[in-house]
Amino acid sequence: MSKPFTITTAISYPNGRPHIGHAYEAIATDAIARFQRMMGRDVFFQTGTDEHGLKMDQAARSRGISPRALADEMASHFKEMDDALGISYDRFIRTSEPDHHAASQALWKAMEANGDLYLGRYEGWYSVRDEAFYDEKELIDGEGGQRLSPQGTPVEWTVEESWFFRLSNYQQKLLDLYAAQPQFIRPESRRNEVLRFVEGGLSDLSISRTSFDWGVKVPGADGHVMYVWVDALTNYLTGCGYPDDTARMARYWADGGDIVHIIGKDIVRFHAVYWPAFLMSAKLPLPAQVFGHGFLLNRGEKMSKSVGNVADPLELAERFGVDQLRYFLLSEVTFGNDGSYSAEAIVQRANSDLANSFGNLAQRTLSFIAKNLDGRLPAVHGHDPADTDLAAVIDQIVRVDMPAAFADLAPSQAIEAWMRAVFACNQYIDAQAPWTLRKGDPDRMETVLATLYCAIAQLAVAILPVIPASATALLDQMGVPEDRRGYGTIEGDWYSSLMRDGFTLSPPKPLFPRLELTEADA
Ligand code: ME8
Questions:
Q1: For residue 465, which of 35, 42, 380, 485 is within the disulfide window of CB 3.0 to 4.6 Å?
Q2: Are the C-beta atoms of residues 512 and 499 closer than 8 Å to each other?
Q3: Is the shortest distance between the CB of 12 and ligand 1 below 6 Å?
Q4: How far apart are the C-alpha atoms of 105 and 101, rounded to whole Å?
Q5: What is the CATH number of domain 343-500?
Q6: Of 16-25, 95-104, 292-301, 380-389, minimum mean pLDDT range
Q7: CATH 3.40.50.620 fits 5-294, yes or no
């Protein structure tokens, strides 16, 4: 049995509705989770909402409602978004849930038992927007002499009694970890940033707050709630059964386990510095990898509420189609880099790759069979080199190149390889021209169609992680059995079994309508 695979997104702040950046992260993580399941792995995929902290408290106050009411309302929008976009999470965690409070308190006690916590007084800068403490030396000057965090958010001077975590004790241990596991932080650019930060020295971290009470209570310290990032990071353990479900922990949070955190580039420090330090302190296994993806920009501009260019992912999905949006985001943006989206770019990509290339290939092949053979599956009458060449190209791509790319968290490379296979099929169909063989050489026509049928099925299976609904609809139409829809399970005798069973292909329904831009998209 292969190792279980644990994969997570960041958990989002439900202080407002989800935006396209949240959708992007969920979609990318979902594609990887789906791919690993198709490899036969035992996958645990978690996403959810990060509901505590001052940011939530203030957002609720400004609306005159309780933080819990705000969290309930907004968490439902995040879940709705995930469900609408086909995100195949195994758990949607909310940090206000009781098992999460228990896990956070257990982690706290484990760090305390290790001698890493002490009570002190915090005096320094805090950004509510980032929910982060910053050193004086990290700040930058904004307009009118206002001090800003390195992320450009306002900071405020904060003085309060606080529990501290001895992060300073972990500098060398972290540097050793990064050296021993060069893939711990990806991509390389993020790894370098973290290395520079840790090499510059680590101050102890303030990990409790007394000025508000919307959070997980610190065990044995009345009036203190945990700093939101302590409980937020713990969500990953909660989902894996910490502390009591040791069997589940052994499965999904094991030493040397394949545990991957997918997060955005702005929160790499929390995941690559604080998180492994907490885990080392609590004597718990570490994740294998933290991947900091890039940001999504609206036509190259940062999204912001004040500019009014924050796109609603559900509106985009309704307008262009869920799979079209998923395909666009995963193909257009190299995972790890920033990317830009616009209605034009989505329409252009969906039309060229999905409607014109793959959709057209499937449509013309299947409708030709439905029409000229009355839906009977074409038989193979001996192969030409052109057929075996095509099969070899497709095999290499779907059995080697695409799985390698997905396993390496490079969905855009997997899609590029897939498009090469689609082009190869389109070249083959044009060169073999089954429509001209119909009169002169009907046997050869059937061989060509059968070759294409099998190739299209392979391509549909291979792209399932990216466009699950459309690829499934196509495979259903084609009668490909469900147990043949894994990576590496499509080859074999399904085609001859289908023929034997007298499967008849109905006239195919078009999968990818051509999208048109309207004035509203400008
Ligand atoms: O950071 N493009 O929550 P969050 C791509 N609660 N990704 C983006 C993005 C954009 N424009 N904007 C945000 C938090 N993200 C914490 C996480 S994890 C224990 C706690 C990403 O709602 C962002 O980088 O601000 C993060 O990975 C995720 O969306 C949630 O952001």
A1: 35
A2: no
A3: yes
A4: 6
A5: 1.10.730.10
A6: 292-301
A7: yes
How would DSSP label each residue in 64-111?
A: TS-HHHHHHHHHHHHHHHHHHTT---SEEEETTSHHHHHHHHHHHHHH
Q: What gap in Å lies between CA 327 and CA 515, rounded to an integer?
A: 14
Q: Is the CB of 26 under 6 A from ligand 1?
A: no
Domain with CATH 3.40.50.620 in the chain: 5-294
Q: Say how far apart CA 385 and CA 392 lie, in whole Å.
A: 10
ipTM: 0.99
Question: pTM for the full model?
Answer: 0.97
| Ligand 1 lined by 303 (C-beta under 6 Å) | yes
Q: Which of 7, 19, 22 has the most ligand 1 atoms within 8 A of CB, as the residue to mutate?
A: 22
- Ligand 1 atom with least separation from CA of 49: 6
Q: Is 22 in the pocket of ligand 1 (CB under 6 A)?
A: yes
Query: Helix, strand, coil: what percent of the chain each, to 5?
Result: 55, 15, 30
pLDDT at site 491: 73
CATH 1.10.730.10: which residues of the chain? Answer: 343-500
